[in-house]
Amino acid sequence: MYAQVQPFIQDTQMLNDFAHRYKQTKEILFQLLDSPVQFTQHIGGTRHMKYPTEPILDILVGVENLHQITALDEKRLNYVGFYRLHHAYHKKVMMAQFNNLTELKQISRLHIIQMSHPIFKQYQTIDHLLETDISFATQFASYKEQIISQQTSIRSYEAQKEAFFIHMTQHRNYKL
Length: 176
What we know:
Blueprint: H1 15-31, E1 37-43, H2 45-48, E2 57-63, H3 71-79, E3 82-84, E4 92-98, E5 106-114, H4 118-132, H5 134-150, H6 154-171
Parallel strand pairs: 2-5
Antiparallel strand pairs: 1-2, 3-4, 4-5
Helix pairs in contact: 4-5, 5-6
């Protein structure tokens, strides 16, 4: 798998492309046979381009129960180009779609979370803040630039972004 963080983009002309890809992916997710998917939401910088972001379509996927994502569901998602990322994720399943099977650059990610879990609401709240709170988005953009100057591995970068969101929502009086 491509181990580095991809170069950031902030091209608002690409918004329509990402919105179209989201719509296509949403249709695929809901049309899978016996799909446990109950909800989808395009999240992150590719939805609004309020800050520089990687060119990866991030989708929040809500399910009634995380254990509904069975081996059969994974196989169905494999058939449409999504593969499970086997890292230690807390209360979520991550799946990615890649540009090709040689380079393995992520082009789309599914953040599959149980809708009744607080992490699901946290994702929605943070996405709302990044779109509507200029100060929050600016702080996040600055923090991302700082991280990328020190770390370029995807795993470290993603862990530090998650830590930033937890810190900001717990210590800065942002309501979840």
